[in-house]
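Consider the tokenized backbone below.
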């Protein structure tokens, strides 16, 4: 925020002299005089009168100086708020969770953090697993809970939390007798799919493809919580993480040979570690491994 000219004019008023103002501002008297002349030309009004060896503001000058001081006050307040935010963010732990885990555990995690780590401030956000990894690598987040069914990224450190296998969740009025999946019905009844391009979308579509099923995808949801609500209200069936499949008035079926994946707690390998980060990672592992 460039406020040099308002600062120059305030210095002239307070010092009552171009020479003293330029000395205070550490610029030459000619440079200060040129700045004043240029500003008066832009405003089409004189801002100061020289009387008795002292520079005093004119009526337009007083109006300008009032606005200049208000502008400097705005600058000072803005910079102070930014500085406070920067100091807070240096201490805050930026925590990102993938939707498959966020759907069933974020309330329990936050409650545990408040109880066991009351001095730690968490900045929580939700993102797909691939995006969460990018957040760590670009220093947008400090720690992530994410899913992977591959080797992962060598620039990240992983701590395995648990293995997850999707199950088929079916509203009770759309379900069938027995424990085995009726794949013919899966292909004809409404099916709720995750958002395109997400990690979980690829898991679900791989399971369907392996069984040769082209589903009647009546609905899509970007969040696992959204899928859970649609299933709970009877809009269709869906594949859900087993830990998120405890839905009222719904039956779950084991999907044979469904692609499994691992849920990890991850941090950037070479990033500067905040003081509270190890305790946060340990608490995440404690909560999700129980």
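A designed sequence for it:
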């Amino acid at each position: 925020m460039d406020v040099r000219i308002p600062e120059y004019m305030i210095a002239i008023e307070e010092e009552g002299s171009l020479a003293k103002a330029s000395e205070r501002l550490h610029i030459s008297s000619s440079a200060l005089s040129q700045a004043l002349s240029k500003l008066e030309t832009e405003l089409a009004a004189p801002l100061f009168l020289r009387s008795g060896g002292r520079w005093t503001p004119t009526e337009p000058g007083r109006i300008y100086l009032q606005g200049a001081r208000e502008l400097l006050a705005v600058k000072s307040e803005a910079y102070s708020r930014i500085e406070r935010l920067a100091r807070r963010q240096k201490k805050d732990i930026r925590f990102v969770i993938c939707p498959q885990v966020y759907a069933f555990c974020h309330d329990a995690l936050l409650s545990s953090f408040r109880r066991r780590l009351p001095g730690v401030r968490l900045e929580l956000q939700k993102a797909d697993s691939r995006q969460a990894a990018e957040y760590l690598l670009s220093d947008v987040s400090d720690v992530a809970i994410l899913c992977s069914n591959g080797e992962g990224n060598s620039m990240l450190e992983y701590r395995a939390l648990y293995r997850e296998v999707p199950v088929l969740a079916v509203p009770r009025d759309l379900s069938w007798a027995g424990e085995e999946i009726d794949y013919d019905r899966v292909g004809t009844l409404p099916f709720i799919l995750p958002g395109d391009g997400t990690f979980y979308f690829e898991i679900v579509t791989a399971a369907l493809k392996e069984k040769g099923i082209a589903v009647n995808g009546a609905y899509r949801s970007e969040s696992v919580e959204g899928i859970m609500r649609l299933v709970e209200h009877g809009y269709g069936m869906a594949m859900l993480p087993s830990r998120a499949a405890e839905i009222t008035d719904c039956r779950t079926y084991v999907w044979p040979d469904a692609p499994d994946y691992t849920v990890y707690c991850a941090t950037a390998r070479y990033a500067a570690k905040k003081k509270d980060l190890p305790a946060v990672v340990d608490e995440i592992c404690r909560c999700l491994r129980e």
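The chain has a mean pLDDT of 88.
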